Design the sequence.
């Protein structure tokens, strides 16, 4: 079993899944794609593809981008077969790397392994909550969103608000706006 302790080995999608589950992974990917000018919010408030996806190696990024053939909301996007399959594959990859506990071995409310918790702490150490008002590069923005939610980050404020992503990551993942659990931890049943 291989473990991972450095963020160089974790994509924003992986960090998001480790931090809060599949919804946070999807949110991190959408924000990363927005910072790369590959998606935007349509007038309807739905997310739409706006440009090519250059040099994307993350399978979830590719699945999300390909699935956005027309405007759709994040909930609809997540239910699309290709996106769902990419999320399942991401979970399996994290289990294979020893970062998530396999479902059949999971105790209630325990998703991450010790190695997964260490990897997440290391990524949080390397990507603290930004203090300035300067926009971050795409991957760095995706990583910060994966770890902490949308916050009020420069460069994605309008996208998150208009696309229905602002603060939704907290309520959808079973946490309050301050990050504390409001019910069962995220991905408890996924």
Sequence:
């Amino acid at each position: 079993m291989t473990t991972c302790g450095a963020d160089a080995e974790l994509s924003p999608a992986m960090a998001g899944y480790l931090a809060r589950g599949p919804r946070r992974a999807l949110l991190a990917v959408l924000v990363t794609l927005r910072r790369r000018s590959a998606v935007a919010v349509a007038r309807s408030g739905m997310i739409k593809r706006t440009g090519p996806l250059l040099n994307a190696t993350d399978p979830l990024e590719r699945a999300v981008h390909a699935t956005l053939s027309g405007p759709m909301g994040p909930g609809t996007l997540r239910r699309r077969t290709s996106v769902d399959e990419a999320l399942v594959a991401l979970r399996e990859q994290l289990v294979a790397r020893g970062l998530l506990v396999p479902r059949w071995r999971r105790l209630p409310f325990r998703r991450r392994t010790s190695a997964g918790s260490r990897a997440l702490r290391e990524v949080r150490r390397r990507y603290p909550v930004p203090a300035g008002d300067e926009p971050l590069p795409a991957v760095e923005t995706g990583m910060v969103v994966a770890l902490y939610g949308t916050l009020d980050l420069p460069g994605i404020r309008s996208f998150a608000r208009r696309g229905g992503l602002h603060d939704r990551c907290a309520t959808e993942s079973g946490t309050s706006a301050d990050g504390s659990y409001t019910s069962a931890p995220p991905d408890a049943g996924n």
